[in-house]
């Protein structure tokens, strides 16, 4: 009976480490159909069988993002708020309990979110408020983005890892500028530019060309002559509009989201180590890595009142996710080795004790297998994110305008078009347009 209880306990441990993903099939089917609210409904119905308390952050992130793309901006923010609150709570708890959590499989811990997921939470928060015309609340989210990125810069000392986000900083600058806070806008644009330049490992593409125009425009307007001259020398002869001309127009910010965000997959790594007594052990570790999901989209173009304007890649979430996880991998591996070593010793001791009580050979074998299987890689991530974000910013005369997005393949085939209703742009006003293609 005692042997049975021990084996049952280990079996429960194995089941507790599993990360069910079957519920995403229906969610992603609805997304493919463009039924964002249907996909959100599928998430809501998957609480008990797909998410559960350990994955509450993902539950709220998925609902919040799908509601955003479904145009339910206020409802989206209610779930993003819950996710952000829970992430902050879990971060505080993890720092407090770091030592005791080292020997616990991450699958058994509540999901806290990757660094880039935390920043993107506030990015979509801010987009929701912009879409609702609430600049004051959007500004609060911009400040939160700045604060989170400052903490990451301090944490990683500005080296190697994800510590600045070009797209998030650019959106923050746009919000500050619409709030007539030109100095703060300029700082955000400069940080966005520095992010693209200094983090080539996560931004392996040029910074958006209109970012150079914004830096020239505002450095001139703010009378920062040295910086203006430096940017002018750096960017060369490019066309840009001065601040006086911009203020006679309105601003249109176009964001195009493409593809499916990366997902985590498991890979194996064999590690040899020794304990304090000098006994050697060889472990086969299960570790996570981000894998991209294929997309046909190679370019996005906006037709502004019939005139073609290319959008530029501003964020490759696939690349950022992969780099963030790669940078964390040594710590994940070290924790996995420590857990494996502790389990190996506990397993040996348990089998000695159980053997004295006549543990059957088959049950001993099963015990070995259950202990091995209990160590699974944590494959949880924000799976409803897009893969890439393209962006365009256009200064347009006041009056009515029409915009269409075209998502194209590398061969020039149009995969999807998104038509926006005609809108009226006011002088010194703004309009944010978003389109999404999953192909």
Description of the molecule:
- With 439 residues, this protein is an alpha+beta fold.
- It has a domain at 250-439.
- Helices cover 53% and strands 19% of the residues.
- It has 16 helices and twelve strands.
- It has helices at 2-17, 24-32, 36-44, 47-51, 56-69, 73-96, 98-101, 115-132, 135-156, 166-178, 182-198, 209-221, 225-235, 243-246, 317-356, 361-373, and strands spanning 250-258, 263-274, 280-291, 299-304, 307-310, 312-316, 388-396, 399-401, 403-408, 414-419, 423-425, 430-437.
- The chain has a four-stranded mixed sheet with strand order 6-7-1-12. Strands 5-4-9-10 form a four-stranded antiparallel sheet, with no helix packed on it. It has a two-stranded antiparallel ribbon with strand order 2-3.
- β4 (299-304) and β5 (307-310) form a beta hairpin.
- α6 runs antiparallel to α8 (115-132) and α12 runs antiparallel to α13 (225-235).
- The chain is globular, with a radius of gyration of 25 Å.
- The model is unreliable at 1-18 (pLDDT under 50).
Strand content is 15-25%
Poorly predicted regions: 1-18
Broad structural category: alpha+beta
Sheet with most strands: strand arrangement: 6-7-1-12
Largest sheet: 4 strands, mixed
**Count of extended strands:** 12
Topology at a glance:
Layout (H helix, E strand, L loop, with lengths): L1 H16 L6 H9 L3 H9 L2 H5 L4 H14 L3 H24 L1 H4 L13 H18 L2 H22 L9 H13 L3 H17 L10 H13 L3 H11 L7 H4 L3 E9 L4 E12 L5 E12 L7 E6 L2 E4 L1 E5 H40 L4 H13 L14 E9 L2 E3 L1 E6 L5 E6 L3 E3 L4 E8 L2
Parallel strand pairs: 1-12
Antiparallel strand pairs: 1-7, 2-3, 4-5, 4-9, 6-7, 8-11, 9-10
Helix pairs in contact: 1-16, 2-3, 3-5, 5-6, 6-8, 8-9, 8-10, 9-10, 10-11, 11-12, 12-13, 15-16
